[in-house]
């Protein structure tokens, strides 16, 4: 068995956390490839090393003195080295970094040093081989990720290396300069490594025991999701549940490798499994509930709308011309509604309205604001009778007025529009009917 293990910043924020990580890796011989993030926050008031590096480099870019800021970053690593009693010094590495900052090596270079240095520490601590991600992760000239070249390089390299640490978050452009993924991108590196070695599992270790059925800020101690499919996750993530970088799904999905989200502080928890498909039923019919506040909708009616060719396109064009992205478009025979983010829409609303009038000539157009969208997601809904009925009767009992219903064609989700002020109440009602009553 081969396992790729990625550890997030909070799992590597201090020597104490490093020790937990070491114990986890040593507990299972199959954990042979390790992808670390940069040290994260040690407590809520603390700073992530990545943020410290961005701030330090901003000073360098403006030709200001950045030595104190760099010394603070070095202190974070020295504290870990001392705590772990490692015979290792990063003095030379920091001299190089200082020189490169002065030479304006770039923001991406600066940010990537967090993972790079943590990789060196981790390799020394575990006695694993250190592989600089710049030698195996490639980006195209235009900055996009070169998946195939990376996969070839990475598999070739790792075939020859039995146990290795590959820092997350960055790689190199064709000219050798450093390029990073977007924030949280170490998750992507972990997935790339898992694909390259055809791992049996990609373990992503963080500070929560996987995904929860609902947001813990709304439902106290919500139930855990044991297994979720990639598509369900996409639906939930889109509406706000974020544990994993979205792009980290693609590399492993290609190879059918499951992702297991685990908690470094509670390694005994089995966490959440993210899989392509599964015969396992979700415990509660639904897999998860999520949502967001702050939407507007534009309701448009026109007699005989359904037979007018191009009507929908003209309406949507008005939004596109104003560069406003659309969330949902439920429609009836002579009506359609367009949901948009209120803050994106509000300053441009009159432009959109006049353009819709000009292009589509509706009979009635009206705007409603302060709406929330709730997504109830679950692969089990398709085969379970009465799911929608239970959702809406729960909402009616809770006195929540439902303003919109949209069921995706995959029957994987039901999107419900309610007023902002009913958002929490609605989530409670849905959670209670499915999870608390355990039906
Ligand atoms: N350290 C980077 C960040 O803070 C990347 C990562 O942690 O995945 O975004």
List keywords for this structure.
single chain; 439 residues; alpha/beta; Carbamate kinase; VC0802-like; 2 domains; eight-stranded mixed beta sheet; six-stranded antiparallel beta sheet; 14 helices; binds aspartic acid
Describe the structure in brief.
This protein has 439 residues and is of the alpha/beta class. It has helices spanning 15-26, 49-61, 67-84, 91-102, 107-126, 147-159, 186-196, 230-238, 249-255, 311-321, 342-345, 349-360, 387-397, 423-436; strands at 3-7, 31-36, 129-130, 164-165, 170-172, 178-180, 201-206, 227-229, 259-263, 272-275, 288-301, 326-328, 335-341, 364-377, 404-407, 413-419. It folds into two domains: 3-275, Carbamate kinase (3-Layer(aba) Sandwich); 288-438, 2-Layer Sandwich (VC0802-like).
Strand percentage lies at 15-25%
Strand order of the largest sheet: 3-4-2-1-7-9-10-8
Structural class: alpha/beta
Shape: globular
Largest sheet: 8 strands, mixed
**Sequence stretches where pLDDT stays below 50 over 5 or more residues:** none
- Measured distance between first and last alpha carbons: 37 Å
Number of domains: 2
CATH class of the largest domain: Alpha Beta
Listed once per kind, the bound small molecules are: aspartic acid
CATH superfamily of the largest domain: Acetylglutamate kinase-like
Instruction: Note the total helix count.
Output: 14
Number of strands: 16
Our Rg estimate from Cα atoms comes to 25 Å
Query: What is the CATH T-level topology of the largest domain?
Result: Carbamate kinase
Architecture (CATH level 2) name of the largest domain: 3-Layer(aba) Sandwich
Question: What is the arithmetic mean of pLDDT?
Answer: 94
